Amino acid sequence: MQVGFYRDTWVEVNLDAIEHNVRKMKKHIGEKVKLIAVVKANGYGHGAKQVAESALHAGASMLAVAFIDEAISLRQQGIKAPILVLGAIRAADIEIASKFDLILTCFSIEWLKEASENCESQGIHLHIKVDTGMGRLGVREEHELKEIFEFVDSSPYFQITGIFTHFATADEDEPSYFLTQYERFQQFLSVIDHEQLLVHCANSATGLKFPSKLYNAVRLGISMYGLSPSVEMKDKLPFTLEEAFSLQTKLVHVKKVPKGTKISYGATYETQQDEWIGTLPIGYADGWIRKLKDSEVLIDGKRLSLVGRICMDQCMVRLPYELPVDTKVTLIGEQKGQKISIDEVAKRLDTINYEIPCMISTRVPRTYLKDKQISEQSNPLLTNMPKES
Ligand SMILES: *Cc1c(COP(=O)(O)O)cnc(C)c1O
């Protein structure tokens, strides 16, 4: 028996879906454009290492994360591929980043000068970030961009290997702001020699919608996980995406209660008749937040409603009839042709699909499927279990 977890709530990640999405995207963007797999935030909640391995296997040539901690964690799990750190890192941490062979984002001349004072290693790879209208991180003027290139030219510590920008509205139907940013990026590129550089501006939305505007790399995040970058784009995707993430639990207690029985904190739900009530071992500490009160789950291919408040570790569901303990319950995913999608949960919470897998906490173990078989289980709570003989 594989020691994975002792609790009947788990995320299932279909790595075949990740590979499918990467392969389809590669085909869509063409031979000459590289694919950078974005695995920040623990691979959008799916598991950074496992997603990275699948993406690389399917043809990604680089990984991207937000912070160096995420990159170091990947290195410590044996990932050797190039890793780009998209976010700002402390200038003081330049040596640790170099030690783990990371590609860093240079977003201002001030950062570059300060970082160079902390350098011992030579030839640290940089991608220069330019701000073309996102207002988040990056160089805003051509003169600063030129200054960065001149500084690096005369510095032994750095080597510029890429330049990039990020779009604020690529996922929206109206293209004018996107085009303004795209033109601004072209202006920046016109003042430097970028012949040898990795030049990238595309997130998932841009990669899907504008395959002729990609320069030579795409940073693929949300759609690698099988999700549409926006509701607007959902019906206009150039190929079918496969959702990789599902969330499962099981009935741990089933009981028949009489009409008028109160359920959960606050006693806000009262049974309207004799009812079968099931208890699920998942709660808001797992990311199944209290706002999901009254949301639906799938049991035996049927949509059933949660009742009463969601507790920290448990919640209750109203059953149509007696069901055995251990019956599988799907909170996100498919059962017998019925589906609760991540988009449905996002809509219920009035947010975007990106947020949903990210909010399922690390207390929930992840199970990985490859060729429909369990290939790996991960549970950060139990990393030091004795080996079974
Ligand atoms: C997160 C991120 C991406 C990925 O965007 P998706 O919309 O998920 O494809 C790309 N580039 C940068 C700079 C990011 O921060």
From TrEMBL:
The modification N6-(pyridoxal phosphate)lysine is found at K40. The keyword Isomerase applies. Substrate binds at R136, M312. GO terms for molecular function: alanine racemase activity. It catalyses: L-alanine = D-alanine. The keyword ATP-binding does not apply. Residues 244-369 form the Alanine racemase C-terminal domain. Pathway: Amino-acid biosynthesis; D-alanine biosynthesis; D-alanine from L-alanine: step 1/1. Its cofactor is pyridoxal 5'-phosphate. It holds the Pfam family Ala_racemase_N. The active site is at K40 (proton acceptor), Y265 (proton acceptor). Its EC number is 5.1.1.1. It is an enzyme of class 5 (isomerase). Keywords: Isomerase, Pyridoxal phosphate. Belongs to the alanine racemase family. Catalyzes the interconversion of L-alanine and D-alanine. May also act on other amino acids. This is Alanine racemase. It comes from Metabacillus halosaccharovorans. The gene is alr.
